[in-house]
Amino acid sequence: MSNENSVMTKEPAKAPETKAPKAPRRGHRLGGSRVGHNIIIAILCVIWLIPIVWLVCMSFSAGDGMYVASFFPKQWSVSHYVKLFQPDTVNQFPRWFLNTFKIAVFNCIIQTCFVLMVAYATSFGKFKARKPLMNVAVMLNLFPGVLTMIAVYFLLREFGLTNSHFGLLLVYSASSGLGYLICKGFFDTVPRALCEAARIDGCNEAKIFTRIVIPTSRPIIVYTIINAFLAPWMDFVFAKMILNAGISSQYTVAVGLYAMLEKSLINSYFTIFCCGGILVSIPIAILFFIMQKFYVEGVTAGSVKG
Amino acid sequence: MSKITSAIGGFFGAIGRYFADFGKAMAKGDIFVKLSLIWWGAGYIARKQYVKGIIMTLLEAGIILFSIFFAPQYVSKFGTLGTVQFEQVFDVNTMQMVPNDYDHSFLILLFSLFCFVVWTVTFFICISVVKNAYRLQLRAQSGGHINSFKDDIADYFDKKFHVTLLSLPVLGIVIFTVIPILLLVFVAFTNYDQYHMPPAALFTWVGFDNFKSLFTSGGLTVSFSYAFGRILGWTLVWAFFATFTTYFGGILMSLLLNSKKTVVPKLWRLLLVITIAVPQFVSLLLVRYFFANNGIVNTICQNIGLTGLLRNWGLINTTYIPFLTAPIWAHVTIIIINIWIGVPYQMLVATGILMNLPSDQLESARIDGANKFQVFRYITMPYMFQVTAPTLVTDFVKNINNFNVIFLLTDGVYTTTNQMMANSQAKETDLLITWLFNLTQNYYNYKMAAVIGIVVFLICAVFTLIAFNFLISGDKEGVYN
Q1: ipTM of this complex
Q2: Which of B141, B182, B343, B397 has fewest C-beta within 10 Å?
Q3: Is the Cβ pair A114, B169 closer than 8 Å?
Q4: Testing the interface with A: which of B17, B112, B286 to mutate, by most A Cβ within 10 A?
Q5: Partner-chain contact A14 B268, CB within 8 Å
Q6: CA B122 → CA A170, B65, B126, distances in Å?
Q7: Measured on CA atoms in the order A166, A171, A177, A183, is the torsion positive or negative?
Q8: Which among A56, A84, A62, A89 is positioned nearest to A74, based on CA atoms?
């Protein structure tokens, strides 16, 4: 028994809520394991950050190309950042940034509306087709996006919408109603008594939606908006598919940066790619951190038993 | 199991009631109800709902015009997908070469499909029109209130608000998800490939030929079934490892970070999450050059003598370590890189769940003298597993279709040396989904891509059905309603 207890005191506690381990009988051993514990975490963090640090190093290195002999550059310079903002035939970073921003804003508006509309209808609506519709949505979600996009590509090509931003926007936003589940999960928790009270006061459904449910659902709306805004920035495959044969000034950031890494270009553009990668990551990372806590709630929302 | 049977039973029961209501309306309705089967406005106009009657009449007229003037030119050729080959003919009037009146197989397929969808919708509108007319008749007979047009509009913001909300999103889903999926299914039964590209050439129905060449080793495309087997195998192996390594890695890491002994846990968490906050097309493309044949990792390995050591052991026969360019090496590297990108994400999820871990259980286990491993094995893991089991299956399905990791790491880097694989435009590191992408984007082999797409769907459907059984038990909708 005493043996097991000593094991307990040495080991990390399981969860934040648990009480602190019993008073250490061997204080120095505990202190030692505490340092060791933090060193392990520090090592893990270093391993995880190596590629990111390398990205920063490469973007500030004076030399060109990716074939460097040392991890840290011998000379530092910001010349690649300057080059990034001097567009040439390959590098049109400012244009790409604007293109992506434009698509992201429109997608943000359409997708947020669609998701909120579908979520409200499926959460608050009381109509017969509700369950069947939701089951169909589950089935449609089974077809991976890339798969349906190949057929969508046929369709867009027939209507001359490939290599256009409008076509890409349609691809991102048209079916976005299917991603309503997280939002619906949140709406399900909005107290129904609130809506009943509003109805007695003479509100119709539309007013309940806009005056009651939306104002009380601020967190999930922030999540939906950020999520919709981030989608075009994070996406690579659909943009590549739709804008594949286009001219480089039409590209989004992802497709443009990818094009810099072609075999014939990589030697002169790799460091510029790193600069572009960092610049585009900063706003995305900030939004991602804001969204982070909703992320976890979203993933577990459907599975945690109430 | 009983849930599934009752769900199926409920489904057919609902269909039965749907048509029974229609039959009842047709049998018991007056002349206007019966007339509204042919003339949609009749029922409404008879009850003085003139605006609605006119709208329905115009809609019906529109559909009839569509069916007479637009539909036949495509639907009539649906059986053959066109017979007139594209040709340039000399026009004596303009003295120029002009294209003949050729058939465009793809447009025939697409617009026929569109007509089928329109007609299906028409069928359901027709039934609901008759039912509505009967309902109106009953209400008129009992002296109930008949909605004016203004009332109807108001209804769409109140009782029927869900219709207003759903119409646009559903239209988007039908055009951009349902029709493409149906199109994909149809293409799987044709010979639509680089030799049969409209408008220059026609394609036609070939039955199950494409499925045969994928699953059996007969016919001209013997390599397809070989490549399919290899790629399917790797897809499942990859999905298994990618899911479980990141799952357990995430749990372990979150236990480590949430320990009492950790100083500044928030800072550590922030550092780890940076990895996933950077878009994948940046981080993965970067890592791919990090591990390139003459990249920085190889340079370092060479300097510390690891490359030489591996060569002495006979593990490699090159002057570099082929992290992403040789079969087994690439597979292992990809899974390891995926751990790098996936663990912080799972760590976030696991942290959120561990926060809710019932601490009284932990406490009593501790009093009973359970050691660290026992607590983990008998309390933490079962709890984690119970909560995350459905996500585990969805993660598995997502990994089957994890396009980004595989494509960004291997496209243009990995070239296969296996002739059989190369013949079917595949690589050892391809997932079904990247193979399919490659077939359509670079080789215009739409027929095989469509077949592979259907197979991917079936695989995902099987795994999701399993997950669905878990999900039903976790549905918390009813609790709050």
Answers
A1: 0.82
A2: B141
A3: yes
A4: B286
A5: no
A6: 26, 13, 6
A7: negative
A8: A62
Q: What Cα–Cα distance (Å) separates residue B428 from each residue in B155, B281, B329? A: 58, 22, 11
Measured between CA atoms, the residue of chain A closest to residue B439 is: A150
Instruction: Return the structure tokens found at B260.
Output: 């009492």
Name every chain A residue with its beta carbon within 8 A of the beta carbon of B475: 302
How far A217 CA sits from the closest chain B CA (Å)?
Answer: 15
Confidence label for B469 from pLDDT (cuts 50, 70 and 90): low
- Structural domains in chain A, sorted by start: 2-60 (no CATH), 86-301 (1.10.3720.10)
Tell me, which fold does domain B213-480 have in CATH?
MetI-like fold (1.10.3720)
- Cα–Cα separations (whole angstroms), residue A23 to A20, A26, B174, B360, B376: 8, 9, 64, 20, 22
Least Cα distance to A190 among A227, A222, A226, A220 occurs for A220
A54 close contact with B: CB closer than 8 A: yes
* Phi-psi group of A162: left, alpha or beta (phi > 0 → left; psi -120 to 50 → alpha; rest → beta): beta
Q: How many CA atoms lie within 13 A of A299 on its CB side?
A: 22
* Non-local CB neighbours of B92 within 8 Å, separated by 6+ positions: none
CA distance B388 to A299: 9
Query: What value does the CA radius of gyration of chain B take, rounded to a whole number of Å?
Result: 31
Percentage of residues in chain B with pLDDT exceeding 70?
94
> What counts of helices (H) and strands (E) characterise chain B?
24, 2
pLDDT in tens, A23-69: 444 444 556 688 888 899 999 999 999 999 989 988 888 877 666 77
Residues in A 186-225 with any Cβ partner in B closer than 8 A: 188-189, 192, 204-206, 209
> pTM for the full model?
0.83
Backbone angles phi, psi at B323, to 5 degrees: -55, -40
| Helices B327-354, B280-290: inter-axial angle, 10-degree rounding | 140
CB contact under 8 A, B157 and A241: no
- DSSP-derived 3-state class of residue B30: coil
Which of A18, A49, A185 is facing B362, going by the closest CB pair? Answer: A18
CB < 8 Å from B in window 74-113 of A: none
pLDDT score, position B4? 61
Backbone angles phi, psi at B97, to 5 degrees: -80, 125
Domain boundaries, chain B: 2-207, 213-480
Residue found under tokens 């997502």: B398
Task: Tell me, yes or no, if A281 comes closer than 8 A to chain B by beta carbon.
Answer: yes
Query: Which amino acid is it at A77?
Result: S
A204-230 pLDDT tens trace: 888 889 888 888 888 888 888 988 999
Helix/strand/coil percentages in chain B, nearest 5? 70, 0, 25
A171 touches A155 (CB < 8 A):
no
The DSSP secondary-structure symbol of B425 reads T
- The pLDDT tens digits for A151-176 are 888 788 888 888 889 999 999 999 89
Read off the tokens for A31: 């202190």
Contact A40, A60 (CB under 8 A): no
C-beta atoms of B166 and A121 within 8 A: yes
Report the C-alpha gap between B265 and B268 in whole angstroms.
Answer: 5
* CB atoms inside a 10 Å sphere around CB A263: 8
For B275, the token pair is 């990895």
End-to-end CA distance of chain B: 26
Would you state the structure tokens that stand for residue B361, as one six-digit string?
């259980």
